[in-house]
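With this grant's support, the team has encoded backbone shapes as discrete tokens. A representative record is reproduced below.
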Amino acid sequence: MAAEDCWLTSEMDAAIAVSRFLDDFAGSDRAQATHLVLKQLRRRTEPDRVLACELAWEIHAGGYWSQLRDDHDRPYESEEAYFRDVLGLASWRTAYKRLSIGRMLSQIATAERAVVRAAVAEVGLAKTSIVAAAIERRGQWSEWIQLARQLPAVTLQIRVSEVLQAQPRGREPLAPGERFRRWLLSAMPDIEAIELVERFFKLGQRVVGTDHPIGVFLAGCRECLADWEVYAQSPAEARSAAASTAVRNETERAD
């Protein structure tokens, strides 16, 4: 049975169209017909899911979610709450993957974006979320989409990790401190916080001179605690501490 034999029109209720189509099949033929209906339904719905990723990224990038209200006219408590409600997702991790696809699409030239959307819809969101970072950083979207068509998800993730010089998920022991970094990122309440922490570690590697996340974290703590201790003191204590610091600095210069 050719895929073209299985059709659903946008003018009819999908359930009615499916029922009428499947009524003509029985036994092994019905199994094949049901299989084709599922594929046809995916062709209908996946392009909308891809477009939703792109619009979700615009919502995030523009901070629109903080201006909006839910169906009960209540403001959203967080970006995570917004996407859980609007996209119907149970996991913030899933929302982050959808946003990564939207971010990747937003960087594709407008004239080419429709073609990329169609290719992503064909491959599916799950595999596209794996290659989105590679497309965003390295370009060559057609090559990565072709790999997504050909390779199973685990092999695809390894290939992406190799190209981006990242650690393949769940394949080898994590680098020292990497588990801590990932745990910290997973604890963040929204994507702004995630991006803030990622920026902290990226800059920290350059400033501190180590790529060990715990080393970067401790160096950041030491830097900010010196200022926080001053602010936490009473005005009199702050003046005394400042005077002591000035005297100590002058003594060190004299020595």
Q: What stands out?
A: The mean pLDDT is 79.
